[in-house]
From TrEMBL:
Residues 113-242 form the N-acetyltransferase domain. GO terms for molecular function: acyltransferase activity, transferring groups other than amino-acyl groups. Gene3D superfamilies: 3.40.630.30. Keywords: Acyltransferase, Transferase. It comes from Caulobacter segnis. This is GNAT family N-acetyltransferase. Pfam families: Rv0428c_C (PF24553). The lineage of its organism: Bacteria, Pseudomonadati, Pseudomonadota, Alphaproteobacteria, Caulobacterales.
Length: 242
């Protein structure tokens, strides 16, 4: 399959936090505290100091920003092997089991799906509407603006109004798929599948041959959709909080 050490740096770079810092192979991300990916420490390889000292630094770094310390631990990433045990001893526990799936790009796409290099106001409206909290929505919109090019922003309209969207971040020969959203009134119509196919086709044209995506492990419907489109499970990760 795929080595997490290949995908994880791409995933971190694809959805950049407002503040980013490193302790050797540990990546510290902080924004407004909503989206876990950009408000967590990603231990992708060994830290640049004693592990317990590194955990202390992480906890102090988040405390200074008024955020709870959070670690994103990925299966197969040894940074170090006993990090979960060390966090457990400090009162942390794992949550939000997430599956990373990989597939290939290509296909015929969908001519009804508009794809651009940057999001417009209607795209951002659909994207932030799913947040539920205005501050959460603002954090997500700001993260969109920090995405490094090239990126693909897909939008499908019905009767002149946006109905479904999706994003692909291109890098390292991969297309990272995320931001898949469907307006509630248009769900269960196959729009997510159409967005996915359009993005995968466009990504191949842009030179990306493979794709990755992240989906919560209990989202059976989404996993079934992605599996039906040729994506296979690669590994899992979880967020550890205290």
């Amino acid at each position: 399959m795929i080595d997490p050490s290949v995908i994880e740096p791409l995933a971190d770079d694809a959805w950049p936090a407002r503040e980013r810092e490193r302790l050797g192979g540990w990546r510290l991300n902080a924004s407004s505290g909503f989206s876990m990916r950009i408000n967590a420490c990603w231990p992708l390889s060994a830290p640049d100091r004693d592990v317990e000292a590194a955990i202390d630094v992480v906890e102090a770094w988040y405390a200074a920003r008024g955020l709870p310390p959070r670690f994103k631990l990925t299966d197969g990433v040894l940074a170090p092997t006993d990090l979960a045990d060390r966090l457990t001893a400090r009162g942390y526990h794992a949550s939000k089991d997430t599956l990373l799936m990989v597939g290939v790009t290509g296909g015929e796409g969908d001519l009804s799906v508009a794809i651009s290099a940057a999001p417009d106001a209607t795209f951002e409206g659909v994207f932030t509407a799913s947040a539920g909290d205005p501050e959460d929505g603002r954090e997500r919109t700001e993260a969109l603006g920090r995405m490094p090019p090239p990126a693909l922003f897909a939008k499908l309209e019905i009767d002149g109004a946006p109905a479904a969207i999706g994003v692909a971040a291109l890098g390292g020969g991969f297309a990272g798929i995320f931001g898949m959203r469907t307006v509630p009134a248009h769900r269960r119509k196959g729009l997510a599948r159409r967005i996915l196919r359009a993005v995968l086709a466009e990504a191949r044209q842009a030179g990306a041959e493979r794709a990755w995506l992240q989906v919560e492990a209990d989202n059976a419907a989404a996993i079934a959709l992605y599996a039906d489109e040729g994506f296979e499970p690669a590994y899992r990760y979880r967020y550890w909080t205290r």
